[in-house]
């Protein structure tokens, strides 16, 4: 069982940590823009404090900052009563109350999510969404060296979506009933955006969302995601499996990843980028994106794979 007051616990801890400078959080500017070609909306934030956040490979392999959490950041050492996950504030938050779900025992960030981890994430999201109807939450999982992850200790991230922000996955799933993919029904892809992504609408009633259902959704999307690595291995033999998972109360989405950073502009993405939430460390790139939002679709493609919308899978696919 997740505590009925989990939102309050997170919020109290965050206010305290911010007051005492236990979290490194400085957002200078934030703007919403829309790409007129793809209709994708972007929430673009200039967050120079992210320069202090260690990037992938920068933490000494023997160090594990997520293992022994600072007491000032620890919200709950047993999130759901199973003893498996703790809830900890992110030391380098990108929004208020940004938290991490971290396995108490070390597990590798490359390992697949378990049905229990998915269910706990979903329950946490629904609990927090239900507590305040003006707020929506998303859990993300960055897995693999090109996914934008920076720590090897298994963890998911919980964020509140920016107010009134509409990720493109909302529009894609709007009015669609839940289904599991089959030969006839492929996962949803928005044919206006250029990068591959696989989305499934979840049942509207949260009582219908079970551990088994979430696991079936995740593994069927993971299967399609892994197919990219199989298909591209001849061209790029060094390619290592990397992907982002995004989960809200309404949908689940997986995005296969080829690069952590774009080469054409000094911008990197994790799962948040593939919901349209862009965290930019320098003013120059921020200004360029605000002025020409259409470049973002190219950047996201550069860090992902080409969309397969409308292409039927063949017998060589997983
Ligand atoms: P990822 O980048 O997806 O691997 O997520 C790891 C997260 O851990 C990042 O968002 C960091 O901001 C955060 N982080 C790094 N060091 C610490 C720490 N000592 N305590 C809490 N969070 C941390």
Automatic annotation (TrEMBL):
Ranges for domain ATP adenylyltransferase C-terminal: 192-306
One MF term in the entry's GO annotations: ATP:ADP adenylyltransferase activity
Catalytic residue list: 155
Top-rank taxon: Eukaryota
Gene3D superfamilies with a match to the protein in the record: 3.30.428.70
Membrane-spanning intervals of the chain: none
Cited Pfam families: Ap4A_phos_N (PF19327), ATP_transf (PF09830)
SUPFAM superfamilies to which the protein is assigned, alphabetical: HIT-like
Leader sequence residues: none
GO BP of this protein: nucleotide metabolic process
Domain Ap4A phosphorylase 1/2 N-terminal: 7-163
Annotated coiled-coil segments of the chain: none
PANTHER family registered for this protein in UniProt: AP-4-A PHOSPHORYLASE II (PTHR38420), PUTATIVE (AFU_ORTHOLOGUE AFUA_5G14690)-RELATED (PTHR38420:SF1)
The protein, known as: Similar to Saccharomyces cerevisiae YDR530C APA2 Diadenosine 5',5''-P1,P4- tetraphosphate phosphorylase II (AP4A phosphorylase), involved in catabolism of bis(5'-nucleosidyl) tetraphosphates
Lineage, uppermost ranks: Eukaryota, Fungi, Dikarya, Ascomycota, Saccharomycotina
């Amino acid at each position: 069982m997740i505590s009925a007051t989990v939102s309050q616990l997170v919020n109290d801890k965050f206010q305290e940590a911010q007051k005492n400078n236990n979290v490194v959080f400085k957002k200078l500017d934030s703007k919403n823009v829309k790409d007129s070609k793809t209709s994708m909306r972007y929430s673009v934030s200039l967050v120079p404090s992210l320069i202090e956040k260690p990037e992938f490979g920068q933490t000494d392999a023997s160090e594990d900052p997520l293992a022994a959490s600072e007491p000032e950041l620890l919200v709950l050492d047993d999130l759901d009563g199973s003893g498996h996950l703790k809830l900890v504030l992110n030391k380098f938050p990108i929004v208020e109350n940004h938290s991490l779900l971290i396995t108490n025992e070390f597990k590798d960030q490359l390992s697949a999510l378990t049905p229990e981890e998915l269910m706990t994430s979903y329950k946490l999201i629904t609990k927090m969404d239900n507590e305040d109807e003006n707020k929506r939450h998303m859990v993300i999982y960055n897995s693999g060296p090109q996914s934008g992850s920076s720590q090897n200790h298994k963890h998911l991230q919980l964020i509140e979506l920016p107010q009134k922000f509409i990720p493109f996955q909302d529009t894609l799933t709007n009015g669609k009933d839940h289904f599991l993919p089959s030969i006839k029904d492929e996962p949803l892809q928005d044919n206006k955006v250029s990068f591959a992504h696989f989305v499934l609408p979840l049942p509207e009633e949260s009582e219908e969302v079970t551990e088994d259902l979430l696991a079936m959704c995740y593994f069927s999307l993971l299967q399609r995601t892994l197919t990219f690595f199989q298909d591209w291995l001849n061209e790029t033999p060094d390619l290592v499996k990397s992907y982002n998972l995004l989960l809200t109360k309404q949908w689940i989405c997986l995005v296969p990843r080829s690069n952590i950073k774009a080469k054409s502009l000094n911008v990197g993405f994790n799962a948040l980028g593939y919901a349209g939430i862009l965290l930019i460390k320098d003013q120059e790139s921020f200004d360029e994106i605000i002025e020409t939002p259409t470049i973002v679709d190219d950047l996201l493609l550069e860090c992902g794979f080409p969309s397969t919308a409308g292409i039927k899978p063949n017998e060589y696919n997983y």
